[in-house]
Specification:
Helix content is about 60%, strand content about 15%. Helix 2 packs parallel to helix 6. Bound molecules: zinc ion.
């Protein structure tokens, strides 16, 4: 069964290309996350990009093609395992154009051009595209039935910080943490993940995420309600047990005989029906729930007074 992560990536990887600026930004995010630098003749730089997702490999090739005279080679390693996961290797052959592109996209630390990087993130549309590219190459998301969690994993701390600040700038409550050798940038709130999916264009994924979340929410509400009712039942039962115990003591002290008829009837009804709710006792007594409540409270006071008296006589 394909994971939700791959559903999301398949959908994002098939979005139509829209603007040159965003194509560049998405490719930069994709390569920064998933590619490593290679060195050719004359210190010219090239790239090697690896992915197990066919749609992502195709997306990378399409985006690279938009960059002009960039030469690429593709290799597929077919898996012998039952899972049938292929691995796609894309090589961008070293050359002057590629070296310039790498510098402009901030893919190499030495050659990073601050102006190029600034241009990459100036517009919101490009920041969103960069996050999409990086997600395609190294993001993952829990299936909606599980706990809400979406993350980027990278070994580079500066890159993790960049993703974190881009998410924050877009208003997402992103967190950043370490896991073994890796840096993890994550989102944990369902609403944030929903906004993220739809902002990055994965509308179908967002719709199914929301549908499952609504089901979960209703189930939680039902559970809360049931727990609440159980707690109330517990309280009622405890109160009834206290009343029965107090009335028994009152009766042993001979106290019932001296009671006003209304109070006496209430005491007898409670003793005869220890499990009944106030409303049920009310039916027996021909009075309302609050009337029963009042009488039982009065009886409890009398029982308490009698105990005080008994304690004083001892
Ligand atoms: Zn743009």
């Amino acid at each position: 069964m394909p994971s939700f992560s791959s559903d999301v990536k398949n959908e994002m990887a098939r979005l139509p290309l829209q603007k040159d600026c965003c194509e560049r930004a998405e490719l930069a995010g994709l390569l920064r996350m998933g590619a490593s630098l290679t060195l050719g003749a004359g210190r010219a730089l090239g790239l090697a990009f690896t992915t197990e997702n066919a749609a992502v490999a195709r997306r990378a090739l399409v985006l690279l093609k938009q960059m002009g005279s960039v030469r690429t080679e593709v290799m597929v390693r077919r898996s012998r395992r039952l899972s049938k996961t292929n691995t796609y290797f894309i090589r961008v052959l070293p050359g002057k154009v590629v070296s310039a592109m790498i510098a402009e996209m901030g893919l190499s630390l030495e050659n990073a051009s601050p102006e190029g990087k600034k241009a990459l993130f100036r517009k919101k549309c490009c920041r969103v595209s960069y996050l999409r590219g990086a997600f395609l190459a190294g993001g993952s998301i829990n299936r909606p039935e599980a706990s809400c969690h979406l993350e980027y994993v990278t070994t580079s701390y500066p890159f993790a910080e960049l993703l974190h600040s881009l998410l924050r700038r877009l208003g997402f409550p992103a967190g950043i943490t370490g896991r073994k050798e890796d840096c993890v940038v994550y989102l944990k709130e369902g609403d944030a993940i929903l906004d993220f999916l739809s902002m990055l264009g994965a509308e179908e994924a967002a719709t199914s995420f929301e549908a499952v979340r609504n089901v979960k929410e209703v189930r939680n509400q039902v559970n809360r309600l049931v727990n609440c009712e159980t707690a109330n039942l517990g309280k009622t039962a405890n109160a009834a047990a206290r009343q029965v115990a107090a009335l028994r003591r009152l009766a042993t002290g001979g106290g019932l005989a001296h009671l006003a008829p209304g109070l006496r009837a209430a005491a007898e009804a409670r003793l005869a029906h220890p499990e009944a709710s106030l409303s049920e006792l009310g039916v027996h007594l021909g009075v309302g729930r609050s009337g029963v409540n009042h009488r039982l409270r009065r009886l409890m006071e009398l029982a308490a007074k009698q105990e005080v008296r008994c304690a004083g006589e001892r």
